[in-house]
C-alpha cells in the first residue's frame, strides 16, 4: 500500500522474535484508520522462528510494507523505514508498544490542525509499572532544546517533508545494536529542530503504551556515556554544561566507578571515540 496522501506513516523497527505478538496485534488495532499506513523493518538477527513466513504474509495481506534487514543497529533500521514513508508525518516505533485506540483518533485530529507548521509533535508515552500507568514525558507548553533531552524516540512524530528537506537522519553510530547504545532520538530531534527552523510541539495525549519493564530500559553498555557527554555538548550553553555535570555525578554513583565520569567528559569535550 502506498503511503502517498496519508496523514501518518508508522515505521516499526523490530526483530522477528517479538513482531508476531506485538506488531500484528497493533496493526489489527489501527487497521480501521484510513489516514494511517505502515512500514515494518524486521532485523533478521534471530531468523529462527518456524512461523516467520506466515507472519510476513499476514502483514503483507494487511497492506504493510515488510522489509528484512541484516542486524546493523536500530538507527539504521529506522532510517531505512523512514526512507520508505511518504505520509505527511512519520512515527518511529519499537516492537513492544500497543496503541490506545480512542487516543489515536484524537491524535489524528491534532496532526491535521498542525499541518506543516511544526517539525515534530511530542506525545506522552505510558509505561506499566507495578500495575500503574506512568508517563515518560509530561507535556510542556513549549518544547525548548533542553526539553528534547527527555524525549523518547517512540514519542516523536515528525514532519516527513521537513526531515527530508533538512536531510536529517538518525545517526547510525548511536542507538541499540551499536557501540554507543543511546541518545539517537535526542540527537535526531535536536538537529531536526535547528536545521528546519520549525518548532517542536507537544500534546497531553498518550496514544501508546510501552510494554517492556524498567530492567529492559536500563543502559545497555557504559559506552552510551560517551554519547551522553556528546549530546550535552550539542545542547550547549549553561544547560548543556549542567546536564553533563548532572550525568557525571549520577552515573559515577550508579556505576561506582570514576570511569563513567571520564567517559561523559570525553564525549562532552571530544565527541565519540573513533
Could you describe the 3D structure shown?
The protein has 274 residues and is α/β, with parallel strands linked by helices. It has two domains: 8-215, Spore Coat Polysaccharide Biosynthesis Protein SpsA, Chain A; 222-274, no CATH class. It contains ten helices and eleven strands. It has helices spanning 19-30, 52-61, 74-83, 101-114, 145-148, 160-166, 184-196, 224-235, 237-255, 259-270; strands at 8-15, 36-43, 65-69, 89-94, 97-99, 118-122, 125-129, 132-135, 156-159, 199-202, 208-210. The strands form two sheets. The chain has a seven-stranded mixed β-sheet, sandwiched between helices. Strands 5-11-7-8 form a four-stranded mixed β-sheet. A hairpin with a 2-residue loop joins strand 7 (125-129) and strand 8. Helix 8 (224-235) packs antiparallel against helix 9, helix 8 crosses helix 10 and helix 9 runs antiparallel to helix 10 (259-270). It is globular, with a radius of gyration of 18 Å. Mean pLDDT is 82; it is low at 45-52.
Quick summary of this structure?
The protein is of the alpha/beta class and 274 residues long. 41% of the residues lie in helices and 20% in strands. The chain has two domains: 8-215, Spore Coat Polysaccharide Biosynthesis Protein SpsA, Chain A (Alpha-Beta Complex); 222-274, no CATH class.
Amino acid at each position: 500500500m502506498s503511503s502517498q496522501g496519508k496523514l501518518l506513516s508508522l515505521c516499526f523497527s523490530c526483530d522477528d522474535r517479538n513482531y508476531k505478538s506485538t506488531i500484528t496485534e497493533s496493526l489489527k488495532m489501527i487497521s480501521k484508520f484510513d489516514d494511517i499506513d505502515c512500514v515494518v523493518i524486521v532485523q533478521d538477527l534471530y531468523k529462527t522462528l518456524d512461523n516467520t513466513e506466515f507472519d510476513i504474509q499476514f502483514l503483507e495481506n494487511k497492506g504493510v510494507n515488510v522489509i528484512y534487514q541484516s542486524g546493523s543497529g536500530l538507527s539504521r533500521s529506522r532510517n531505512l523505514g523512514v526512507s520508505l514513508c511518504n505520509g505527511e508525518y512519520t512515527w518511529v516505533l519499537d516492537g513492544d508498544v500497543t496503541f490506545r485506540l480512542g487516543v489515536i483518533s484524537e491524535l489524528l485530529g491534532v496532526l491535521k490542525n498542525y499541518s506543516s507548521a511544526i517539525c515534530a509533535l511530542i506525545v506522552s508515552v505510558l509505561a506499566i509499572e507495578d500495575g500503574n500507568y506512568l508517563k515518560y514525558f509530561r507535556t510542556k507548553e513549549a518544547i525548548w532544546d533542553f526539553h528534547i533531552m527527555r524525549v523518547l524516540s517512540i514519542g516523536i512524530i515528525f514532519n516527513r517533508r521537513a526531515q527530508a528537506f533538512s536531510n536529517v537522519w538518525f545517526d547510525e553510530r548511536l542507538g541499540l545494536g551499536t557501540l554507543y547504545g543511546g541518545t539517537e532520538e535526542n540527537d535526531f530531534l535536536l538537529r531536526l529542530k535547528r536545521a528546519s527552523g520549525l518548532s517542536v510541539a507537544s500534546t497531553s495525549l498518550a496514544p501508546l503504551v510501552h510494554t517492556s519493564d524498567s530492567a529492559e530500559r536500563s543502559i545497555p553498555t557504559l559506552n552510551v556515556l560517551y554519547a551522553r557527554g556528546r549530546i550535552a555538548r550539542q545542547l550547549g550553553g549553561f544547560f548543556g554544561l549542567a546536564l553533563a555535570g548532572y550525568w557525571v555525578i549520577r552515573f559515577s554513583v550508579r556505576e561506582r566507578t570514576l570511569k563513567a565520569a571520564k567517559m561523559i567528559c570525553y564525549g562532552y569535550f571530544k565527541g565519540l571515540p573513533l
